[in-house]
Amino acid sequence: MQREPLEKIFRRLGLSGEIQKTAFVADNREALQLMAEMGLCRNNREVGKTRELLNRLKAEVSLEIPENRQYVMEAEAVLDLMAGKITAEEFVSREGAALHCTLDTDRWYDMEDVYLTETEMTCIRQTLKGLDDIEKRRQIEFLIRFFEKYEKRNLLPEYIAMYEYVMVLVASELGNMGAYQLATELDEKVLRTVLKCRRVYMVSDFLYDIWWNEEEQKLVCGRQIEKEKMTNNLKQCLIISHFCKCTFDEGFYYDKMHQVI
After folding, report:
1. Same structural domain for residues 121 and 167?
2. DSSP string spanning 102-132?
3. Residue 215 lies in a domain
4. Which of 31, 63, 120, 148 could cross-link to 116 by cystine, CB 3.0-4.6 Å?
5. 1 and 122: one domain?
6. Computed from CA positions of residues 59, 65, 68, 71, in that sequence, does the dihedral angle turn out positive or negative?
7. For the chain, where are the alpha helices, taking DSSP H only?
8. Do residues 157 and 16 make contact, with C-beta atoms less than 8 angstroms apart?
């Protein structure tokens, strides 16, 4: 079914007319179930289990279809990076190759009007960390403009899953580049939208990023870090990640908290 009639049906049913598309073509429900399970394992950095599910998924679908091939290439690149089998440079190259399965251009960020599927957006997001500052800024500006178009049309709630997924990394990278104030403003803006949509899965990521920017700015100014406040902030992030069953994030916050103590 095409997106437009499907969206109208969802609206009549009182459901979100989610605009994002995975663009994955499968003939059976089992493949979609494998995708869902694989997404959870991947988020928790369970490399072995994720790879096993991906291999099962590959047996269920045709890789002659560009969208399917792109999904598999992107997932394999991430798993190889997590396992330490490839360098950051190789990872960026492989994510770019996956993107080109369906997007036949190297200048997508100069396009005024471009529709991106969920997997295409994931490929773009994943390459950010491996880019030099000039190229990174260019892609960050594109991503911010891309979502501003949905914001102006009051459609962000319908693209919320990809919006939070992309913007949490954009804000983090801005902070890493020293643009603390801009990063915090973006974190707070996205967090408001996320909470309005009653989503909690990535709330801890935004809260941690806001706190991290604040602490970095204190260090730059030579001000003392408040350990008690730092510990309380980390506790909040830990509780939220535990509630959402984000085991990797929960462990991360736990370790950070005990480093402070």
Report:
1. no
2. T---S-GGG-SS----HHHHHHHHHHGGGS-
3. yes
4. 120
5. yes
6. positive
7. 3-12, 29-43, 47-60, 66-82, 88-99, 118-127, 133-152, 160-176, 180-196, 203-220, 227-243, 247-260
8. yes
Q: Please state the pTM of the whole predicted model.
A: 0.83
How confident is the model over 158-206, as pLDDT tens digits? 889 899 999 999 999 999 999 999 999 999 999 999 999 999 999 999 9
Residue type, 105: T
Distance CA 120, CA 99 (A): 6
Domain with 19, as residue range(s), is 1-132
Q: At what angle do helices 118-127 and 88-99 cross, to 10 degrees?
A: 160
Could you tell me the two tokens for 114?
A: 């471009």
Q: Is residue 123 part of a domain?
A: yes
Distance of alpha carbon 258 from alpha carbon 34, whole angstroms: 36
Separation between Cα atoms, residue 233 and residue 226, nearest integer Å: 11
Q: Are 40 and 107 in the same domain?
A: yes
Is the same domain home to 171 and 125?
no
Question: What total of structural domains would you count in the chain?
Answer: 2
107, with CB counted inside 10 A (0-12, 13-18, 19+), is exposed
154, burial (CB in 10 Å: exposed 0-12, middle 13-18, buried 19+)? exposed
- Residue 137: inside a domain: no
